[in-house]
Amino acid sequence: LTIKMGMGNSFGRIFRISTWGESHGGGVGVTVDGVPPRLTLTREDIQYELDRRRPGQSRIVTPRNEPDSCEILSGVVDDITMGTPIGILVRNTDQRSQDYDTMAVSYRPSHADATYDAKYGIRAVAGGGRSSARETIGRVAAGAIAKKMLKEYAGVEIVGYVQRVGDVEADPVDPDTVSFEEVEANIARAPNQASAERMIAKIDEIRKTGNSIGGVVEVVIRNCPAGLGSPVFDKLEADLAKACMSLPASKGFEIGSGFAGTYLTGYEHNDIFYIDENGRTRTKTNRSGGIQGGISNGENIVFRVAFKPTSTIGKLQQTVTRDGKESEIRGKGRHDPCVLPRAVPMVDAMAALVVADHLLMHIAQTTLIPIDAATAPNPLGPMPKPGTIMAKMEKQKTGGAH
Question: I need a surface site. Which of 31, 101, 206, 271 has the fewest CB within 10 A?
Answer without folding.
Answer: 101
